[in-house]
Amino acid sequence: MDATRTSRHLEETIDNFEKQKIKDIKNIFSEFITIEMLFHGKALEVYTAAYQNIQKIDEEEDLEIFQSSLYPPDYSTCLDIVRANSKSPLQKSISIKCISGSGHQWGIV
């Protein structure tokens, strides 16, 4: 009788342990899946907003803005400013020597 009671008690302990293990695993996976769903739901919101913003882009207007930045109204004046500032220091010193007559006559201006 004592062996039967001990055997039953051991079976109950094993059953209780198994029930608790199943509950714990169920809770862990439920929490994990809930967190993942929240994460992916938020990601979907962000992607949806990004997609909508991309769809709102007006290609023609964007191209016009780009072209107007390349070709300002007073294009020749801007081009002269760029040319004047684009000479390297070596080119400037050669130009000065040729103009002043102290250097070789290379014809570089």
Structure characterization notes:
This protein is mainly α. It has one domain. It is built from 4 helices and no strands. It starts with a helix and ends in a 9-residue tail after the last helix. The model has no long low-confidence stretch (mean pLDDT 82).
What is the compact description of this entry?
The chain is mainly alpha-helical and 109 residues long. It has four helices and no strands. It has one domain.
Question: Which secondary structure elements does this structure contain, and how are they paired or packed?
Answer:
Layout: H1 2-55, H2 59-70, H3 75-85, H4 89-100
> Helix- and strand-based class?
mainly alpha
List the uncertain runs. Answer: none
Structural Rg: 40 Å
Shape: rod-shaped
Oligomeric status? single chain
Strand content: under 5%
Q: Helix tally?
A: 4
Number of strands: 0
Helix content: over 70%
Largest sheet: none
CA distance, first residue to last residue: 117 Å
User: How many structural domains are formed by the residues?
Assistant: 1
Average predicted local confidence, pLDDT: 82
Q: What is the string of SSEs from the N terminus onward?
A: HHHH
